[in-house]
Amino acid sequence: MLYAWIDGVKRPPLVKGERTACPDCGGLLTSVMPVENVNHWRHKAGDCDPWSEPEGPWHLGWKEQFDLACREVGLVDNATGERHRADVLCGLGTPTSTVLELQHSSISEEERGAREAYYTRGHRMFWLVHVYSSETAFTGHSFGFSLDFGSHPRQVDSHTFFIMRWMGRSKQFIEKWKRATAHVFFDFQGHIFFLAGDELARRINGGTPLRKGEFALCRVPRDQFVRSVQGLA
Predict the structure, then answer these.
(1) pLDDT given at position 136
(2) What is the dihedral of CA 96, 101, 102, 105, to 10 degrees?
(3) Do the Cβ atoms of 100 and 120 come closer than 8 Å?
(4) What's 70's DSSP letter?
(5) Residues 141-151: tens digit of each pLDDT
(6) What CA–CA distances, in Å, run from 202 to 51, 86, 159?
(7) What is the mean pLDDT of residues 27-49?
(8) Helical spans, DSSP H, in the chain
(9) Can you tell me the mean pLDDT for 49-58?
(10) Is the distance from CB of 227 to CB of 98 less than 8 angstroms?
(11) Residue-range domain boundaries for the chain
(12) Distance (Å, rounded) from C-alpha 122 to C-alpha 98?
């Protein structure tokens, strides 16, 4: 986790050796000051949120787009005691309460569904998926080759969507996110795209579902995306 409370201030660790308590579980947190990554807090006994994952500059950059009070907000299911920490939660207690999950690493469909079931209880939910390539994955290359804003435009609710075909060898990535029940946005090279879910995709495609490997995207300005999470757009 990137933030914890120190002397009444919510912040990342500043120096090696700092300690504090987790605001969610009360467990001991110690500062981690890596050379090639961002400073963060580590649970001595293991993170109380089993969905936590390593975070880096991409996560930090996006969290800093929102008020400090909205970053890393712990939620507890009073019926089961299940506890998770939303990356960003804006408008808590209002009709536009929105959870934003920042997804940099690969995630299984089972966990994606579990997070959606948990966070959509009383909240809207947005995914922001970081699309990039690495030494072992070529998702970013496939996504870039698939972008086609020159054909098949469709106007829906004042937004222009484009139907595209996935150009990668495996369609697993795009099909998994097409099946999401929350709103899915992609961050590709700093540009934001909204992925049409099944119901919206049917409207875009004249009432019929898109075929396997087909997907529909709409460009979204970064400031508009942030305002949408904040419930202002």
Answers:
(1) 79
(2) -160
(3) no
(4) G
(5) 999 999 999 88
(6) 32, 30, 15
(7) 93
(8) 57-63, 109-119, 139-146, 172-178, 198-204, 222-229
(9) 93
(10) no
(11) 91-229
(12) 9
Is 54 within 8 Å of 38 (Cβ atoms)? Answer: no
Identity at 108, one-letter amino acid code = S
What tokens were used for 126?
């947005």
- Answer yes or no: pTM beyond 0.90: yes
Q: Tell me the helix, strand and coil percentages in the chain, rounded to 5.
A: 20, 30, 45
- Structure-block tokens of residue 7: 């002397």
Q: Which of 39, 42, 8, 7 is nearest to 22 (CA)?
A: 42
Altogether, the residues listed in the chain come to a count of 233
Question: How many whole angstroms separate alpha carbon 62 and alpha carbon 85?
Answer: 16
Q: Please, which pLDDT band fits residue 228 given cuts at 50, 70 and 90?
A: very high
Whether pLDDT at 168 is above 90: no
Structure-token pair, residue 225: 């995306």
Other CB atoms within 10 Å distance of the CB of residue 16: 10
Determine which helix (DSSP H) or strand (DSSP E) holds 207, and give its type and residue range. none
Q: Compute the average pLDDT of residues 209-229.
A: 97
Three-state secondary structure along 172-185? HHHHHHHCCCCEEE
Spatial separation of the C-alpha atoms in residues 74 and 93, rounded to whole Å:
14
Q: Which amino acid is at 101?
A: E
Strand partners, 82: none
Low-confidence winner among 59-63, 77-81, 105-109, 209-213 (lowest mean pLDDT): 77-81
Average pLDDT over residues 172-180: 97
Q: Which amino acid is at 148?
A: D
Residues 6+ apart with CB under 8 A from 110: none
